[in-house]
Amino acid sequence: MAPKFPGAGTFVPESDDLRVLADAARSCRGCDLWEPAENTVFGAGTPSARMMLIGEQPGDQEDRRAQPFVGPAGALLNRALAQADIDRELTYVTNAVKHFTFTRSDRGPRRIHKKPLRSEVVACHPWLEAEIRAVDPSVVVLLGATAAQAMLGTSFRIGVDRGRVLELGEARAVATAHPSAVLRAPDDERDAAFDALVADLRVAASLLE
């Protein structure tokens, strides 16, 4: 018997055209996350960007608007990129998982972020591989543990290797904290967490010089 959710590989077309890939992703049934989500949130940005930024998954606002990094974490990322002298308009941003993973609040309709399962990250990985092939970036920024482990293996630890230059196929990679982790930091630690994110982004930017 075929598995109920075969993974995204069944749905990924043989194309390096991001528009074709994004259109196909809207019909993906590779895992069960498509059912409660409102939209498939594919990557966005410059098709031939030299820098690709990969996060974990879309959030509530991203799911509603079908665009990556347009919520509070996206706003913080924009500010960090600006301080690192990186033009977001010249990058490509995406996520390891293309659907919002959430639970419902007991006190109302609010949707609360839930970390995707490893099986869900693996199921969605063919889309991420297709995006990397299509964009062919020279530098990849991995935002958070889920993105880093999706690309570098489950043994990777952000706290140990963040900010270092790593090899990722033909590209070089830099892992750092996810912007949402900066937002969740205690008030007295948030400025330092933001500065650390900017410092890591500057390392990535230096690789483009």
UniProtKB/TrEMBL annotation:
Keywords associated with the record: 4Fe-4S, DNA damage, DNA repair, Hydrolase, Iron, Iron-sulfur, Metal-binding, Nucleotidyltransferase, Transferase
Entry's Gene Ontology molecular function annotations: DNA-directed DNA polymerase activity
Pfam families attached to this UniProt entry: UDG (PF03167)
Residues in Uracil-DNA glycosylase-like domain copies: 42-202
Recorded family membership: Belongs to the uracil-DNA glycosylase (UDG) superfamily. Type 4 (UDGa) family.
Protein name: Type-4 uracil-DNA glycosylase
Lineage, highest ranks first: Bacteria, Bacillati, Actinomycetota, Actinomycetes, Mycobacteriales
